[in-house]
# Entry
Amino acid sequence: MRGLNGQVVLVAGAAGGIGAASAARLAEEGASVAVADLDVDRAGRTAAEIGGTATAFGYDQGEEDSIVALVRDVTSHFGRLNGLHANAADLSPEVVGRDRQLLRMDVGVWERTLKVNLIGYAVLIRESLPHLLAAGGGGIVCTSSDGSELGQVSQPAYAASKAGINALVRHTASRWGRERIRANAVSPGIVLSEAAKAAQTAETLATYLEGTRSDRLGEPGDVGSAVAYLLSDDGAWVNGQVWSVNGGLVLRG
# Structure
């Protein structure tokens, strides 16, 4: 892909899964990658596996001051910032497992979900934008979810947070697009890491596959390649979009 060689990209939520795959693909294309995560030890291992200039940073997506410090530390370390992949979410059982239909809603779960999955993204963009503008423009890619489109009977807080991300990238593209800022979202369907695959039964995996229009389930690298494209010069004419990277699980008009 054109235009990633020598660029500095912050991947927030990069210790594993989609974030780690995106960081690895960006580094493969020649970018210097900041591998940021709440789990700094795991982020360190991911950065070591990527090698080169990849560097691990610890931060808490649910704390504004921590996000501010992250962007400050990344730009201080690398000297600039050319791209952002916002990928973190609170997927802990205590949060996702208690994200129930509205008659059984837990307000604390909603507050935590929106704080991490949406407000944290807005703060990341707010803090990154001045550096991207100073660099003459740059790309932002947020991880959304097809859960924002499916109308599921559970996890409404999660779906609402992802729908908010879709609105956030459209706002960012509309406000700063003429200043060479590109803001898009990738919307994965069923993406299974190796650990996730190992935790599922063959029957469950078969049920997941029946819901797609492809011959296999998704892997983190499928989304990572889309992220890299959107941050590259090859994706320069894509702005304000929400891309389904889902094997045909949801068909957008």
